[in-house]
Structure formats: structure tokens, C-alpha cells
Amino acid sequence: MKRSLAILFGALLIAAALSAEEKPQSFQVRGIVREVRPEKQQMIIKHEAIPGYMDAMVMPFSVRDAKLFNGVVAGDSVSFKLIVTDEADWVSEMKVLSREAAALPKPKALPEVKAGTVLDFTGIKLIDQDGKAFDLSGTRGRPVALTFFFTGCPVPNMCPLLASKFEAVQKLISVSDGNSQPLLVSISIDPRNDGPKVLARYAEAHHVNAGYWRLATGNLDDITRVALICGVNFWEEKGILTHSLRTLVIAPNGAVTGVFTDNEWAPSALRDALLRKVTQ
């Protein structure tokens, strides 16, 4: 009898723990819709600060209920609930507050970056997670996967997922050998907060091996230059971050061989893209 009660009590504790882990957080958010993407189940929204969760930002939000797209257009001022679990986030209960399409800013013209584009990072000064100077142009001779992130990003499907995937790729490429050893590079788009000490803690949490994966920061001008070269705009008026997803695969000769514009890729796919032979 005692053994049965102990088993029952243990099962209840496990169930309670699982229930606590799975209980989603809910945040009320206001913002302006920048873009509607029903084909990707997304909306790009410039949102106000979410107290206790995230600063004001422009970023894509997942939309699970297709009905939320009805009657919503770019420029709408909206309010919505953001539901967040340990592994996912999505929008619910969206309400259009006003329509201000004319107030939308014009997107900045960015260089087109596609397969074959040769990237030149000459003169850009960065610092890695160990506080050492990191010269992107010095990565010539190695295949590189370059992406953008920031350590304060709490959204499960954004930077945390990207970091987990890069960690998985690091394990896959660590078994390869030779002079063309692949390198992963994650550049922070929040240099005001992501100094070397912050990057070092992030690196430790994700088991970063500097031989295969470098986290980088620098001054805002240099980070902006890198981003623009890669076709990414991450900075807006009043210091608001624009959080987009882009991972470039760069051949040893500096030419782009692949562009991942979301987080849906598998670690093995990025590994294969890095190890693919490229004609010099």
C-alpha cells in the first residue's frame, strides 16, 4: 500500500512539474502591422515594449489561426495577445484599433545578396566572445555560415532556436578536418548591450568552441556595415531594433553560396551547404 501511494505521489509530482513547464505566458501587446504574410503564417509588427519580456522592436510574429489575417492590412494599428511557451510563440485575439497605412515608412534599399555575390568585409573591426579582435576578412580560405542575433532575444522561434541549431551544426562540423574547416559566425545586432563578457556567458551556455564558432560584437557603425553588406537592415529611428532572420553561407573565396531567410532549416542542411565543394 505504501509503495502504491509513493508511486502515485511521484506521478502527481511529475505531472505537476510538466504542467508548470507547459503553462504558457500571455502578454498584451500593441503595435503597427508592417507586413502581412499569410503564406508563411506570419505578420511583421512594430510593437511597443512588452513589460517584463521584450523591448520595442520590429519583428515577425507567428499566426496560427488563419482567421486573424482577415481584415488586417499593413499600416493597421493593432492590439493582440502574445502567447509564449518554452518552445514556441504565437499571436492570438488580434484587434484593429485604427488604420494608418499612409504612415508606413518606406523600406530602405538594400544590396541584393544572392548566390555568387562576393562579400568584402575589409576594414570592419569586430571583437569576439573572448575579447579578441576578429577580422571577418581573415576568414577567407574557410567556408563560413554567418548570421545575426542578440543575446537578449527571448522569443523561442528566433535567436534561441537559431543558437540551438548553430550548436547542433557545430557538433556536425567538428568531425570534419583539413584546411577548409568550416566556421560559424554569429554577429550581435545589439552592440550596446552585447559586449564580450555578455557574449562569453552566452557562448558558455551554448557550448561554443571558438575553433568552430565565433560570436562577435563591435561598434554600431561596423555592425551596421556588416549587416548592410549582407543585405540586412536591423536599425530604425529612435533606436528600435528590426529583428529579421538571415543566415549566409560563404565559400572560401568570399562568394555567397546560400541564403537561409528563416529558421526552418535543419542543422544537417547547413552542414551540407558549408561542406559543399565550390569552384574557386
In short:
The protein is an alpha+beta fold and 280 residues long. The chain is 23% helix and 28% strand. It folds into two domains: 25-103, Copper binding periplasmic protein CusF (OB fold (Dihydrolipoamide Acetyltransferase, E2P)); 126-275, Glutaredoxin (3-Layer(aba) Sandwich), CATH 3.40.30.10.
Widest sheet: strand order? 7-6-10-9-8-12-13
CATH homologous group name of the largest domain: Glutaredoxin
The share of residues in helices is 10-25%
CATH architecture of the largest domain: 3-Layer(aba) Sandwich
- What is the CATH top level name of the largest domain? Alpha Beta
What is the β-strand count? 13
How large is the share of residues in beta strands? Answer: 25-35%
Which residue ranges are poorly predicted, with pLDDT under 50 across at least 5 consecutive positions?
1-20
Q: Using only CA atoms, what is the Rg?
A: 21 Å
Number of helices: 5
Task: Return the structural class.
Answer: alpha+beta
By CATH, the topology of the largest domain is: Glutaredoxin
The average pLDDT is 85
| Major β-sheet annotation | 7 strands, mixed
Multimeric state of these chains? single chain
How widely separated are the two ends? Answer: 74 Å
Domain count, please report it. 2
Shape: globular
Q: Helices and strands, in N-to-C order?
A: HEEEEEEEEHEHEHEEEH
